[in-house]
Amino acid sequence: MPDQPAPRLEVQSLSRAFAGRTVVDDVSLSVAAGQVTCLLGPSGCGKSTTLRMIAGVERPDSGLVRIDGQVMFGPAVNRPPEARGVGLMFQDFALFPHLTVAANVAFGLTGDRAAKDRRVAELLEKVNLTGFGPKHPHQLSGGEQQRVALARALAPRPRVMLMDEPFSGLDNRLRDGIRDTTLDILKEEGAAVLLVTHEPDEAMRMADEIALMRRGRIVQKGAPYNVYNAPVDRAAAAFFSDIN
Ligand code: ADP
Ligand code: MG
């Protein structure tokens, strides 16, 4: 039998305590290229800390992070964030206010000017912001800024996209549409996506797989409808029951 290719992102037994309190407890998950896994759970359960450890901005106490089979964090390895091939997107879009939209999108790109310009134009088209390149972030609506942040994170073709509640700063009215277009673009670009959310309906809408987290642990993993239809326990059922 041929070897299975390594999953794009592999996390094994990641743990982290703050001041003696374990907030991420033995978390394991893997995400294939082109797939979206939603790390779903209530506020405070350890989602952001998990994401930050995968990104390399928070140090795990123990565990392993591999991308395309390469160890990024392990017993003798701790590669810096910029060497991990990950793209990051957070709730506050954190665009550079003094840079144009085009310069924001080009920020993480290396190589010659013409190639950068082509990639910027391609991404602005994908996020439906052709012509917005010379503007500054403050001239854009919240939804437009969110799309610039998506284009910026995807520009260097990250192998893994890590997204922490990327839609929660947006108006309800806009959110569903932006979720759908974001998902289309993520699928086209083909990164492995780990998306953190506390909203079950967002996970149902976007995930290929849901990893349900509670008090630092993953309590259930599966396809959205399996997790929704067969919650592992009463608390999981109650969590999903607020879905609209
Ligand atoms: P979530 O993203 O699911 O809301 P977090 O990962 O942000 O959860 O936080 C999990 C727990 O860890 C929370 O109780 C939070 O207060 C605590 N925590 C997170 N970061 C730190 C830190 N740097 N120092 C101390 N406690 C922290
Ligand atoms: Mg969080």
From TrEMBL:
Gene Ontology BP terms: quaternary ammonium group transport
Keyword Nucleotide-binding (UniProt): yes
Keyword Membrane in annotation: yes
Domain ABC transporter: 9-240
Keyword field: ATP-binding, Cell membrane, Ion transport, Iron, Iron transport, Membrane, Nucleotide-binding, Transport
MF annotations from Gene Ontology: ABC-type ferric iron transporter activity; ATP binding; ATP hydrolysis activity
Origin: domain of life: Bacteria
GO cellular component assignments: ATP-binding cassette (ABC) transporter complex
Listed name of the protein: ABC transporter ATP-binding protein
Organism from which the protein derives: Neotabrizicola shimadae
Taxonomy of the source species: Bacteria, Pseudomonadati, Pseudomonadota, Alphaproteobacteria, Rhodobacterales
Residues of the full protein shown: 1 to 244 of 367
